[in-house]
Amino acid sequence: xxxxxxxxxxxxxxxxxxxxxxxxxxxxxxxxxxxxxxxxxxxxxxxxxxxxxxxxxxxxxxxxxxxxxxxxxxxxxxxxxxxxxxxxxxxxxxxxxxxxxxxxxxxxxxxxxxxxxxxxxxxxxxxxxxxxxxxxxxxxxxxxxxxxxxxxxxxxxxxxxxxxxxxxxxxxxxxxxxxxxxxxxxxxxxxxxxxxxxxxxxxxxxxxxxxxxxxxxxxxxxxxxxxxxxxxxxxxxxxxxxxxxxxxxxxxxxxxxxxxxxxxxxxxxxxxxxxxxxxxxxxxxxxxxxxxxxxxxxxxxxxxxxxxxxxxxxxxxxxxxxxxxxxxxxxxxxxxxxxxxxxxxxxxxxxxxxxxxxxxxxxxxxxxxxxxxxxxxxxxxxxxxxxxxxxxxxxxxxxxxxxxxxxxxxxxxxxxxxxxxxxxxxxxxxxxxxxxxxxxxxxxxxxxxxxxxxxxxxxxxxxxxxxxxxxxxxxxxxxxxxxxxxxxxxxxxxxxxxxxxxxxxxxxxxxxxxxxxxxxxxxxxxxxxxxxxxxxxxxxxxxxxxxxxxxxxxxxxxxxxxxxxxxxxxxxxxxxxxxxxxxxxxxxxxxxxxxxxxxxxxxxxxxxxxxxxxxxxxx
Length: 619
What we know:
Elements: H1 2-19, E1 22-30, E2 34-36, E3 40-50, E4 55-58, E5 63-66, E6 73-76, E7 81-85, E8 92-96, E9 110-114, E10 126-127, E11 135-136, E12 146-154, E13 158-161, E14 164-166, E15 169-172, E16 179-186, E17 193-196, E18 201-208, E19 215-218, E20 224-231, E21 242-247, E22 269-276, E23 291-297, E24 304-306, E25 309-311, E26 317-320, H2 331-334, E27 340-341, E28 344-346, E29 357-360, H3 391-397, E30 404-406, H4 409-413, E31 415-417, E32 425-428, H5 453-456, E33 535-541, E34 548-555, E35 559-566, E36 572-581, E37 584-591, E38 598-606, E39 609-617
Parallel strand pairs: 1-3, 2-4, 3-5, 3-6, 4-7, 5-8, 6-9, 7-12, 8-12, 9-15, 12-16, 15-17, 16-18, 17-19, 18-20, 19-21, 20-22, 21-23, 22-24, 22-25, 23-26, 24-27, 25-28, 26-29, 28-30
Antiparallel strand pairs: 10-11, 13-14, 31-32, 33-34, 34-37, 35-36, 35-38, 38-39
């Protein structure tokens, strides 16, 4: 009775929240410490500035809408902070103020963070693009603009004119004391993310169905980012050319980078990215021709991309040599400032030839890989040995850099369902080279081991292993995982870290509520890793639970079974069972009294195979 009464109370509270809340319109400046709470919704009207010395704190589940008519935007100025502290079950939502079904690209401005970290503009600072008054740049690499965790930003991004845009989430001279993770930008009317200089780092960031670029880096940005996802709508691209990565270093008004000076170069490091373009197959024609490349490296940039997957673009990597007025893009390959290693390139356009790597020069900086003036086109099928310009090609294809090339994503990378725009499957399947080795068994639950002694008795390496030993990836910031791309393939539900808090259908999501709570993950569907297993169907009940629960598990043959409860970070918080089980139906009772309210994962392991169930605990 107590359990039912609690659930009834929660249901009543949910219904009440759906109809009774106050909308607070916010405009102009926030000049004192301000706290946005879950009992209200907030409407951004025009440019809203958090000014120097002020901190804006936002609770989990708060819904903030951008006014369409005034292009509402949130700008956190230098010396101010944002503390947007969402959770996996209650992410903070920034979205359009338009009704369900009527939201679209650029309904509001977006979020801009400004800091005092160095930029390569002459004079050491510049004004934010797109119209805001705010300046950015300075001398403090460790400047702190606050924290953003589990935040969704939907339908932002306004391109007023070329090179005068507001993106989904923009970092302007932001320092590395700022903490950024678990961010999703969806349907941005310009870039999903753009960094103008600075040193801020980030993890677990999703760019979904943006209009221009997924990840755009400029003006001396030198931060680190890991576990990044880009997924594109094939029919939404920008006239300037849409890419997964776009990276520039120099332009009019910045340092030039001439005479080999790389002191103010753009040199970020991206690792464990899964960037999926518009081409379901290399011969696809059902996509906007303004898509360009998985990565466009130009204007003297030295971006490094490591341990990543780029799939389904007209070109893989487009290396774009600078004009003579600025530092050379290609020179960064020779001096080691730029790296492209341990990556997969797959499913790139194949007509008239495969475009895994494309090189353009002599100031042809806006040409697409299919333009007749692109250097590769004159070489026919022998373009990889283009006389005089083999350097960029051999750099990508050098066997010691362990880049792999596959004709299609489906036969090469073998992710679950990466082109699906409503329920993307980015986790590797059991035969993906990310988690499989045909010559020697690879267990993705265990660390990489290159020991070949004893007839490979301890050897544990996938077909496409990562590398965190080089000078770009050995920084303590990077999690030293045993896979490339953004997702593991151990068979755990938690392999897909986008589950729950991300939303791939925001146009049809109702936000007529306060304190947003992510919809539950299916509780009774087990996920098998690979091959035959002793595990059959599994179910846990009652679910939700506030005390005792029972796990019902079908066992197909005798064997050792391990059952643990994990939190949403993958940490084991309770062991339920570890021992032999016999053929038949097993009933395992367990208690959750020591667990706090929240969402957990039950991990069931047998024969190195895994099933997972979601468990909700309500106290």
